[in-house]
Amino acid sequence: MHWQALAAASASASAKRLAAICQPSKMTSTPVIVTRSKPGADQTAQALKERGLTAIVTPAIELSRSEAALPDLSVYGGLIFTSANGVRFLAAETDARDLPAWCVGPATASEALLEGYSPVHQSSGNAEDLAHYIAHHWPADQSKRLLHVANSAAKGIVKAALEHEGFEVDFLALYEAANAPALHPDAVSAIASSPSIVLVHSAKGARAFMDLSAGLDLQRVSYVAISEQAAGPLREGGKDQIEIADHPDEAHLLEALDRLLAAR
């Protein structure tokens, strides 16, 4: 999807959801614990507050710049981003914005547009969907060498799928994700004192939350996960009170939260 169409679609979708986002929730007393890394955690917290909910930010994952050297971008025909964090870290390293950015979903594409990349192409779904989208929308006259910017724990799904289609993909682990030292005291207090809800944006974040919450009584905790993949570590840990977003993006995650609250 070219950036002009993307911008129009994003504006339309935002307008449709604005009223819902600004509607106060009936369940304002239920604390919602946000485990994603910053700055995304603050954006989610703001959306929760606009819903009339109590948001507690406690990133389970902390991000930092890796020691990887930035390659010469002029040898590539495009950039692959599988998270908004990848966009942020690369944008902080270089002023180059002229390579096409191929992004996995609206949040990543929106971040690329915000940082000034052009053109920006957006797939929907997961890494496999992005690889399929790139392979079937690649300009015939453009170099098929791509740079995938991600964190050091990325699985390489995009690289493997595109190389099968005749592309050359270099992987740049530009940042690292590590468990936070501890949960925020407010999150610990909320879990101990009342029923609460934990938002999960990734499998790594879910696994980190499980590690950090070891020893806490989680019987009254419910979970809302952005995808089944993200919920995997929760299920492995015996958690079954999990609401799954219909589509792996922030808007649908919040809709899943609304469903859980309405059912209470």
Automatic annotation (TrEMBL):
Pathway of action: Porphyrin-containing compound metabolism; protoporphyrin-IX biosynthesis; coproporphyrinogen-III from 5-aminolevulinate: step 3/4
InterPro entries xrefs: 4pyrrol_syn_uPrphyn_synt_sf, 4pyrrol_synth_uPrphyn_synth, UROS/Hem4
Pfam families (UniProt xref): HEM4 (PF02602)
This protein's UniProt keywords: Lyase, Porphyrin biosynthesis
UniProt-recorded Gene Ontology molecular function terms: uroporphyrinogen-III synthase activity
EC identifiers of the protein: 4.2.1.75
Keyword rRNA processing: no
Domain Tetrapyrrole biosynthesis uroporphyrinogen III synthase: 42-255
Annotated GO biological process: protoporphyrinogen IX biosynthetic process; uroporphyrinogen III biosynthetic process
Top-level division of the source organism's lineage: Bacteria
Catalytic activity: hydroxymethylbilane = uroporphyrinogen III + H2O
Enzyme class: lyase
Purpose: Catalyzes cyclization of the linear tetrapyrrole, hydroxymethylbilane, to the macrocyclic uroporphyrinogen III.
Family: Belongs to the uroporphyrinogen-III synthase family.
This protein's name: Uroporphyrinogen-III synthase
